[in-house]
Amino acid sequence: LTLSLSVLLAWPIGIYLSRVWNGERTWLDPVLRPVGGVFYRSAGVDPRRSQGWIGYAMALIAFNAVGFFLLFAIHRLQGVLPLNPQGFEGLSPHLAFNNAVSFVTNTNWQSYGGETTMSTLTQMTGLTVQNFLSAATGATIAAALARAFVANRGEGVGNFWADMTRTTLWVLLPLSIVLA
């Protein structure tokens, strides 16, 4: 049953993902194009401008580095941040580092008890956001890799920022709403 369902859904989902990552029209565009446009304008991103693999990789590394440092800071400072009704102290440096790396890389290896260690703010703004964005990062890498295979040494592999925005808004957000 699971294999049959996977095979049946692979074709329409693959077509949808291709349309999303190529910036083609989808049924969610009337709602999401204006939202995506706000993100692009506020970040100064031209979603039609393709990046070479080095530019794409550097954008990916920069995005994940910022995510790591923000999550590390949230972990270390959770004792003085709001939404900490249990009064949890900040995590030790090694645990904050380990956990930040783990969530940014989407491995989610945990050596603590979540509800007995992490404040509400840390779980909401740190861990949940990174669970979402690290999944989007992995999907954008898949999109760039697919473009690289198709282009066969052509120009560019897409735009990391456009791929992240599209993956988050057109794929992960609707999926999370449906599954919730």
Give your account of this protein's structure.
The structure is a single chain. This protein is mainly alpha-helical. 71% of the residues lie in helices and 0% in strands. The protein is built from 7 helices and no strands. The mean pLDDT is 93.
Give a brief description.
With 180 residues, this protein is mainly alpha-helical. The chain has seven helices and no strands. Helices cover 71% and strands 0% of the residues.
Task: Supply database-style keywords.
0% strand, 71% helix, mainly alpha
What is this structure's SSE topology?
Layout: H1 2-21, H2 29-43, H3 53-77, H4 93-104, H5 114-117, H6 120-151, H7 160-179
What global shape is seen? globular
Number of strands: 0
Please count the helical segments. 7
Largest sheet: none
Helix/strand structural class = mainly alpha
H/E element order:
HHHHHHH
> How big a fraction of the residues is strand?
under 5%
- Low-confidence stretches are none
Helix content range of the residues, please? over 70%
Give the overall pLDDT as a whole number: 93
Terminal CA distance reads 22 Å
- The radius of gyration over CA amounts to 18 Å
